[in-house]
Design a protein that fits this description.
alpha/beta, eight-stranded parallel β-sheet, two-stranded antiparallel sheet, 14 strands, 38% helix, globular
């Protein structure tokens, strides 16, 4: 049984309530182009998607964004920084805090209508204070329409990457979409998902039959895998990356723009946030060692917030209430190091 609770207006109506101003549209268009040029190889900069595991409250996210905007000015010749403002949180067992989209106040009940308004406001204010447009995870494909005018990068998570609707909606997105390997880690499944997202599709979406042209910017994200015993197994090492490169090459041109982004947290780090520093270091060493590795690995996803670690409830300002994150000082040093070695 479905109990109706709150009527949600259409995406068009809610976007019209709080539209993207022309001044910010220009910023987003410029940031979109920078990100796309990394994916296509027109730019040799590295893409760094960095920010909190989940954006649970606006004030610390905006403070983080101010700092990231200032840091971007120091590294913009070498890096394209895209902030993580992730407002939907997947749950392994399906229960718990599901992100600002569902719960704008993590200590109170779900209110999706208030959540949509809160995250549109957050994304708009974030662009204003930092000059950077953000990334979010497309956990629920239907929800993407409420945010599509604001995002420079979209992630499809490990639990979603084999789902048909996620693949189809990705094919209609006009900005880069990073598709993570499934929790089982199959490279072939990952490449199949990228192929589906890059291909034209016809399907039902928001009460319409729609046709897409395919998204050439869809690409692979390696986030580690989980074995049959529930153990985390990294897949950022040289051997896995070269296997993905071989998979692209075997596709004989059916897959455009071979790209891997390394997710430094999740099963690659065992959610040990400080391990992200070591992982980045190894990946950067491998980029300097092998031209094929360097050609395909074009950036990182890093979980970072103002204060290191995590907490169960929102007590410490700027500390994650979901997965542990690097603190700001370590994050800043790490980003400066990536820029120096890029």
């Amino acid at each position: 049984m479905f109990e109706k609770q709150i009527f949600i207006p259409s995406a068009e109506e809610l976007v019209a309530e709080r539209p993207l101003p022309e001044s910010l549209k220009k910023i987003k268009q410029e940031r979109d182009k920078l990100c796309e040029d990394v994916i296509t190889g027109k730019s040799d900069k590295l893409l760094v998607i960095v920010g909190p595991c989940s954006a649970h409250e606006s004030a610390p996210v905006l403070e983080y964004m101010r700092r990231l905007g200032r840091l971007n000015e120091r590294v913009k010749d070498k890096l394209v920084i895209v902030p993580r403002i992730y407002t939907n949180k997947p749950r392994t067992r399906g229960v718990g805090y599901k992100g600002m989209f569902s719960q704008p106040d993590p200590e109170n009940k779900e209110n999706i209508l208030a959540g949509i308004r809160a995250i549109r406001d957050l994304h708009l204010r974030a662009i204003e204070v930092s000059g950077l447009s953000a990334a979010d995870e497309m956990l629920y494909p239907e929800n993407y329409a409420y945010m599509e005018d604001l995002l420079t990068y979209v992630a499809v998570g490990a639990r979603s990457s084999e789902n048909q609707l996620h693949r189809l909606v990705s094919s209609g997105i006009e900005t880069p979409v990073g598709i993570k390997n499934t929790t089982g880690g199959s490279i072939q499944v990952l490449l199949n998902s990228v192929f589906a997202a890059q291909s034209p599709q016809v399907f039902k979406y928001h009460n319409w039959q729609v046709q897409t042209q395919g998204n050439p910017y869809a690409h692979c994200v390696l986030r580690g895998r989980v074995d049959k015993s529930g153990n985390d197994v990294p897949n950022y090492h040289y051997e896995t990356v070269m296997n993905v490169l071989a998979g692209y090459e075997k596709a004989n041109g059916e897959l455009k723009y071979p790209v891997i982004i390394i997710d430094t947290n999740h099963s690659n780090s065992g959610k040990q946030c400080r391990q992200q520093i070591r992982i980045v270091n190894e990946v950067m060493q491998n980029r300097s060692f092998d031209t094929g590795f360097r050609r395909i690995v074009k950036g990182f996803m890093i979980e970072s917030f103002l204060v290191e670690g995590n907490q169960q409830h929102d007590v410490v300002f700027g500390k994650s209430i979901t997965d542990p994150c690097l603190g700001w000082e370590d994050s800043e040093r790490l980003i400066l190091d990536i820029a120096e070695r890029a």
